[in-house]
Every structure is written in C-alpha cells, then in structure tokens.
C-alpha cells in the first residue's frame, strides 16, 4: 500500500483517492481534514504525476499555510516547494502583481493597512462634512468592507441601501485609494474577481494553471472568495473543499456558512466524505465540546469520538479576581513543566486581545517565556511604518498617503498648514502632492516652498539610485539620507534605541527576503524570472506587499522555540496543543455582552467559538474565569459563562471559589492566600533601589495608563493596555508619571 495512505482510515483514504471531480469533506474538529489535504496534494504529485505547478491549496492563516508547506515538503521532498499554498489574500496579491495594470492600477500598487484605512476615512468624512460623533469612521469602514465582501460597488449599494452617507464615503474612499495606487485588503479579492471577469484570458491562464484546487476551512469563506474559487474551478472542476459548519466563526467579517452548505447544490456531482473519528483529543475533552455545541439549532447532530483514551476531567477554576486567575495559570504551567510538558505545549486562548495583559504580567513575574500572536504587529510600529512610507513614496511618488506621513518626519519645518495648502492646490489641479510642488501658486511662502522642493529632490535622488543597491543597502541609504536615523540617534533614549534596533531587524528581513524567500515565491509562480534578474524597485514592491499580509512575523525557528503561546480563539483555528487554557470564561466576555443581549445567530457564533476553543486541546483542558476583574479601567463582577453550565458536571473538576454547583471549593480566604506570593517579594526587594515598584500605577504621554510589573535598576517594565503591551522604559523618562 502506498506510504501516503498508510495510517489513514477508510474515509480518509477515499478522500485522498478521489482526485477527479468536486469533493466535499465535512467533518468535526480534529478528524484529519487538513491532514487529508496535505496527503492528497502529495498523492497527486507522486502517484498521479500531477505537476506541482498545477496544484493550488488555500488555507486560512499565514501560519496554517506555512505549516501545510512544511508538511507537504516532508511528504514529497523539495518539489513540494513549487505548490501554491497560501491564503486567499496572498494568492490575490500574486495574481494582481502580474496583471493589475489591465484594470487601471499601476503594477507598483501598495496595500493599505487598517490604521491607514481609518485615516483615509477620516479625511473623506471631513471633506463631506460628516460628524464623526454621529457616525463613527469605524462604522463606515465596516460597511464598506461588508459591501466589498459581497462584491458590491457604491452603485450597487445605491440601488438597495438607504444610508446615502455610506455610499458617498465609499465612493470617495475608493477614488482616493485609486488615485494613490493603493488597495485595501478587501480590494485584493474584489479586484481579482474584476480582473477575471473583464479579462477572460487571465482567468483562462489561472484555470489551466490550477487544475487541482484545495480549500481548507471552507465554512469561513466570504462571497468574494467563493466567487474566486468558482471561477477558478469552472474549467477542470477538480475542487476539494474541507470544513466543519460547527466551526464557522468569521461571519462578522462576511464569512457565509451557506457556501459550504450549498456545495452539493453548486456541484451536483460532488462526492461527499464524512469523517467521524477524532485523532486529536482525549474523549473527556470531546464530551465537553459535544455538550456545548449540541445547544445550537439547525445543525446535523454529530458527536465526536476518539480512541485516544478517556483522559482527565476538565479543570474548571473560578478565581476571586483576574490577578488570581492569571497567577493560577502561571502556577499550573510552572508545575506541569516540571513533569512531562515543555513550554511550547501550552496555549492560552482568550476571546479578546485585551485579555492577554493580565496573563502577560503573571508570566513575567514567574519568568515564563511566551509568544503573543496577533498583538501589536511589528509592522504597525511607528518607525517601521515611516520607513515603509519612504520606500513606497520612492517607488511611487504619487502616493499622497505616504507623502503626508513622512514629509515632515524628521522635522523639516513643514507645518500642517502648508501641507493643507499644497493639498488644496493638488485637489483643484487634480495632481498628486509631489507633482504639485512645481506648480503650486496659491500663496505658500517661498521659504516653505523651498523646503518642499528640497524634499522632492531628495526623494527623486534616492529613486534614481535604487538600482545600484540591494534592498537592504538601499534601506540603509534611505535612513541616512532622509535624516531619519540621525533623528533617532540624537534622541538618545532607550525607546529611540529600540526603534533603531527594529529598523535594523527590518534590514535583516529584507536581506533574507531578497536572498531566499523571493526565489521561492517566483518558483511557485512558475515564473521565468529569477530574483537576481528583477530590478530592485520591483523586488521592493513585492516585499512591501508581502509584509503587509503578514499578520505575525514569526519565523519557522521562532515557531519552534520553547514558549507558551498566547492568542485569541479566532487565531487558534486549525491548531492543536497538548495543554490548553481557556480564560475569562465569563458572561459578558465569552460570550460577549452584545451576543448575550442579541441571542440568536450571534450567540450561536459565540458557541461555535467555544467549540473551536475546546477542541484545540489534545490531553488536558483548563477553563478559568474570575468573579471580578478590571475591565475598561473599573472593577466589574461577571457571572460564570453560560457555556460552562452546558457542560455536564461529570466532565468537570471544579475548584477555586464557590461556584453555583456547590462542589467542594476554596474558601474566600484560601483564595486570597493563594494570590501570587512572588509579587509581594518582588515589591519589597525592588523598592530599595528605585522610586518605582511593581504595582505602581503610571500615566505615559503616548501609551496612556499602565501598571509597573518589574523594575531592574533604572529600567521599569510597564504593562500598558492593548495594543501597546509591555514596555521597558527609563524610570526617569519625563513622559512617565505616577498616577
Ligand atoms: P480542525 O477542524 O481543528 O482543523 P482537522 O480536521 O483539520 O481539525 P487535523 O488537524 O488534520 O484535523 O488532524 C488532527 C490531528 O489528528 C493531527 O495531529 C493529525 O496528524 C492527526 N490525525 C489525523 N488523521 C489521523 C490518522 N488517520 N492517524 C493518526 N493521526 C491522525
Ligand atoms: Mg484543519
């Protein structure tokens, strides 16, 4: 029997062997859906002689794509590298990079991140005299995003939507993006569909290229993604989708569960394979998952089972407050690590990003190494965004958004009023800001105009030199010539030094990209080009867009480092860990308030999220919560999550303060005694050599309110609220005050 089919159950084998025609694999968590996909890809190549260039696999996150690539390579060797395995968004970037000029954009287009999107919306609202207090910029952004996910243009909306403002904002927003040659994340999908529809020759090219299509997590595709898949699969119809309707958790971002439910309708000749056995978790964990999910209506009743053994009851711990909860988790990890587990075997899952802070504090106190997934992204740091704006402007001088960001960064004596004047002129003359510099005649002072001219000359000088350098060398040149590096060096603070370090890290990444990653990308595209034949500018544009899509910057090595993983449940989709902690299991946090109030679909989605969280655990599952905690700056008391009451008592080992079931539990005093003893010790030792001590409340000019979590000499570690996280600062820094 073929090696690839060895160790597969009969249904899994069937899914792997059904290589031709439409195929749907519907199955619960941990039943081997993703494993079927990787083996099927390897099988196509080794047994069916399918070229790797003719295979496409789409996963939900970059992390999942990276893992799938590794697994395919392990199964099939080097040739596995040539299979396109990516997320929808990365696939679209690659398609657009070759042909976006056919639909009017420049090939050097840049991607806009969410913070940039928001600032464009704010500008649009100002232009249109819309009051942000009446309708928030975020509201418009989400309306636009929804429309795009449904492939609706402003004109389509005007046919059905009553809110005129949304249509006007959408229209103007889109014009600004187009003028700046920028696209947002949703545009990547929308524009790919446009490209396919308007240019059938491009579609045909990709239809012939992707003769075998695989989509993981199909239950979470939105309508634009659905359309892309349908178009690509039209010709060969070899499409294999896998998913689990109980794990649909992205409807708030436009995912449409109907896509998977109507697969058999879309492809009447589809073969459907159901997988039943779970290979991931102990039975007790599956019992809890089954108990919770069965409360959702309108689902096929399927109960997960496993022969990995019964396992222990789920550890349910109700803490007195958020601090005690975090300490409990840290204590358990320290303890269990002495036995048989390593740090990377643990994951802490929470409903919202802001919950990570309390856990981080406890981990820092107890020296537990951790990795935060999806916290403040490296690419959102100011210095990185500034550098990227310089690079973008050099590649595309008409990019007004980048222009505005750095024209006076470092300070060049160009004030907001002058930029405003230039903008007015540019709008009237329908020119970009850069192009307006030579033309402007609306009374900008001569001295200021000269500063603009110097700036323009500097950018064009850099632009003319780029081809003489590698990307990393060029970045060095940019940082020096623009005075950016000098500005940081002169600042002479720890913060500025760490910014310089970050910029250095960016350069190393660019080198790695140029020397290794780029060749892999080009190989996958079956492109004639080799990295060293591309111009530096082209390479830079590819790099910038590639980076925008990375939600985490974790490298392969980092992923294997021995650290505890902290992430939201949404980010944990598809992953598995020997020991999982789900924290903040409280009404109002999980499920969220709004879901509790709304009930219905929203509550059912929260329940699916609970099901996803529980089924990440292989051996041991902890569920924790706290009777009271600080939320939004004040103490609030929360009831236990309604979902805990859906799990049968016989699967739970309840500890901590008294819970509704009146099981033996800690008394209040015991729980209080249980509070981190280490914290007290730290406070005492640290007060001796510094005016700061752990627990002090601070106010920082830029990061807002925070709490001191450690002091070492002059350096104070302070936990600020999301997205800032923990920062190490000089205790004497003037931006820092006691509250
Ligand atoms: P999810 O719904 O969470 O994405 P999944 O259905 O994709 O889960 P996989 O991640 O593919 O499940 O598999 C879960 C675990 O079970 C993996 O560790 C996988 O290697 C293992 N597994 C799957 N099938 C088998 C099998 N036939 N024999 C042994 N182990 C298996
Ligand atoms: Mg999976």
From TrEMBL:
InterPro entries: ATP-dep_DNA_helicase_PcrA, DExx_box_DNA_helicase_dom_sf, DNA_helicase_UvrD-like_C, DNA_helicase_UvrD/REP, P-loop_NTPase, UvrD-like_ATP-bd. It comes from the Bacteria. GO terms for molecular function: helicase activity. Residues 6-282 form the UvrD-like helicase ATP-binding domain. Pfam families: PcrA_UvrD_tudor, UvrD-helicase, UvrD_C. Its EC number is 5.6.2.4. It is an enzyme of class 5 (isomerase). The keyword ATP-binding applies. It catalyses: ATP + H2O = ADP + phosphate + H(+); Couples ATP hydrolysis with the unwinding of duplex DNA by translocating in the 3'-5' direction. Gene3D superfamilies: 1.10.10.160, P-loop containing nucleotide triphosphate hydrolases, PCRA, domain 4. PROSITE patterns: UVRD_HELICASE_ATP_BIND, UVRD_HELICASE_CTER. Residues 283-574 form the UvrD-like helicase C-terminal domain. Keywords: ATP-binding, DNA-binding, Helicase, Hydrolase, Isomerase, Nucleotide-binding. ATP binds at residues 27-34. NCBIfam families: pcrA. Belongs to the helicase family. UvrD subfamily. This is ATP-dependent DNA helicase.
């Amino acid at each position: 029997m073929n090696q690839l089919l060895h160790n597969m159950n009969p249904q899994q084998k069937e899914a792997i062997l059904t290589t031709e025609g439409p195929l749907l694999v519907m199955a619960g968590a941990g039943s081997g859906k993703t494993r079927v996909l990787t083996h099927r890809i390897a099988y196509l190549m080794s047994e069916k002689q399918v070229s790797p260039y003719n295979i496409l696999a789409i996963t939900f996150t970059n992390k999942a794509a990276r893992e799938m690539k590794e697994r395919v390579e392990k199964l099939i060797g080097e040739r596995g590298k040539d299979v396109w395995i990516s997320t929808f968004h990365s696939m679209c970037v690659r398609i657009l990079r070759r042909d976006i000029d056919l639909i009017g954009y420049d090939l050097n287009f840049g991607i806009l991140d969410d913070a940039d999107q928001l600032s464009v919306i704010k500008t649009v609202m100002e232009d249109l005299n819309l009051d942000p207090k009446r309708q928030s910029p975020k509201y418009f952004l989400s309306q636009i995003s929804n429309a795009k996910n449904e492939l609706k243009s402003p004109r389509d909306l005007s046919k059905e939507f009553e809110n005129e403002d949304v249509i006007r904002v959408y229209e103007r927003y889109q014009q600004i993006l187009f003028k700046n040659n920028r696209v947002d994340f949703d545009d990547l999908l929308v524009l790919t569909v446009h490209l396919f529809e308007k240019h059938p020759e491009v579609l045909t090219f990709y239809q012939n290229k992707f003769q075998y299509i695989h989509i993981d997590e199909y239950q979470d595709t939105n309508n634009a993604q659905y359309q892309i898949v349908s178009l690509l699969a039209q010709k060969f119809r070899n499409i294999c989708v896998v998913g689990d309707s109980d794990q649909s958790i992205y409807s708030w971002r436009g995912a449409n569960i109907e896509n998977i439910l109507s697969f058999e309708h879309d492809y009447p000749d589809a073969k459907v394979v159901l997988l039943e056995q779970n290979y991931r978790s102990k039975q007790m964990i599956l019992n809890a998952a089954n108990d919770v999910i069965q409360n959702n209506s309108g689902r096929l009743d399927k109960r997960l089972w496993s022969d990995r053994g019964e396992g222990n009851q789920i550890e349910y711990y109700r803490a007195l407050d958020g601090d005690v909860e975090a300490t409990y988790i840290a204590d358990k990890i320290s303890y269990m690590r002495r036995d048989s587990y390593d740090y990377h075997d643990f994951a802490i899952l929470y409903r919202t990003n802001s919950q990570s802070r309390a856990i981080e504090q406890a981990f820092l106190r107890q020296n537990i190494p951790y990795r935060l997934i999806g916290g403040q992204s490296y690419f959102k740091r100011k210095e990185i965004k500034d550098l990227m704006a310089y690079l973008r402007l050099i590649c595309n001088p008409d990019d007004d958004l980048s222009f505005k960001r750095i024209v006076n960064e470092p300070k060049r004596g160009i004030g907001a009023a002058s930029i405003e004047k230039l903008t007015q002129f540019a709008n009237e003359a329908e020119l970009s800001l850069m192009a307006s510099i030579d033309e402007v005649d609306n009374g900008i002072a001569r001295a200021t105009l000269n500063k603009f001219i110097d700036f323009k000359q500097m950018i064009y000088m850099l632009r003319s030199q780029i081809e003489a350098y590698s990307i990393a060398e060029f970045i060095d040149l940019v940082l020096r010539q623009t005075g950016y590096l000098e500005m940081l060096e002169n600042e002479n603070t720890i913060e500025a030094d760490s910014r310089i370090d970050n910029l250095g890290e960016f350069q190393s990444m660019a080198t790695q990209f140029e020397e290794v990653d780029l060749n892999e990308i080009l190989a996958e595209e079956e492109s004639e080009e080799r990295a060293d034949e591309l111009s530096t500018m082209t390479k830079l544009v590819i790099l910038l867009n590639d980076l925008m899509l990375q939600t985490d910057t974790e490298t392969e090595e980092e992923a294997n480092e021995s650290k505890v993983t902290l992430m939201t449940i949404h980010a944990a989709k598809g992953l598995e860990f020997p020991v999982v902690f789900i924290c903040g299991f409280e009404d109002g946090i999980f499920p969220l308030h709004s879901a509790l109030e709304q009930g219905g679909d929203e509550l059912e989605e929260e329940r699916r999220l609970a099901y996803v969280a529980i089924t990440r655990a292989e051996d041991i599952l902890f569920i924790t919560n706290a009777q009271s905690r600080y939320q939004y700056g004040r103490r609030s008391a929360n009831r236990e999550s309604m979902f805990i009451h859906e799990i049968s008592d016989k699967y739970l080992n309840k500890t901590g303060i008294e819970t509704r079931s009146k099981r033996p539990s800690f008394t209040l005093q015991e729980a209080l005694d249980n509070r981190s003893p280490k914290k007290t010790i730290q406070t005492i030792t640290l007060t001796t050599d510094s005016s700061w001590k752990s627990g002090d409340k601070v106010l920082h000019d830029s990061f807002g309110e925070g709490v001191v979590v450690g002091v070492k000499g002059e350096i104070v570690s302070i936990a600020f609220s999301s997205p800032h996280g923990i920062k190490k600062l000089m205790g004497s820094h003037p931006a820092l005050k006691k509250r």
